[in-house]
Amino acid sequence: EELGSLGDKVRRVAAIAGKLAVRLKADEQTQNLVKRAAEISKFDLVTHMIYEFPELQGVMGEKYARMRGEDEAVAAAVNEHYMPRAAGGEVPSTFTGAVVALADKLDTIASFFSIDVIP
Predict the structure, then answer these.
(1) How far apart are CA 93 and CA 86, in angstroms?
(2) CA dist., res. 77 & res. 92, Å (int)
(3) pLDDT tens string for the chain (119 positions)?
(4) What does the alpha-carbon distance between residue 66 and residue 80 come to, in Å, rounded to a whole number?
(5) CA 68 from chain center: how many Å?
(6) Is residue 33 within 8 Å of 14, Cβ to Cβ?
(7) Is the torsion defined by CA of 116, 105, 9, 30 positive or negative?
């Protein structure tokens, strides 16, 4: 609640992911894929499917992205950005997924510290 809406988080993650992609010397096309993946990374959360079946978080986002005609790298990154889902879990296999996953986790950690919640 103190951190804003889901849209606010998505905008923060997209900004962080874009900066990471530049710092990692990604080419312009890859930077655009990273930014797009970050922009739609949470759209599966607005469906009731995820609340009924939380284990499908990311999986459904990837499927929705494919159905909407998103680039394959973007669709995969929507799922991969939730990785690892637990300590020792599977990590993203794509650059785009790894960058968005890192941006999402950096935002979460920084946001918690900003409201004096120490993770």
Answers:
(1) 16
(2) 8
(3) 788 999 999 999 999 999 999 999 999 999 999 999 999 999 888 887 888 888 899 999 999 999 999 999 999 999 999 999 989 999 999 999 999 999 999 999 999 999 999 87
(4) 14
(5) 17
(6) no
(7) positive
Contact call for residues 52 and 76 (beta carbons, < 8 A)? no
Are residues 103 and 17 in contact, defined by beta-carbon separation less than 8 angstroms?
yes
Cα separation, 41 vs 91, in Å, equals 16
Distance of CA 37 to the CA centre of its chain: 7
Q: Which two tokens stand for residue 116?
A: 């004096």
Pure H helices in 1-119: 6-23, 28-39, 48-52, 59-67, 72-80, 95-114
* Residue where the block lists tokens 């010397």: 25
Say how far apart CA 28 and CA 47 lie, in whole Å: 31
pTM above 0.90, yes or no: yes
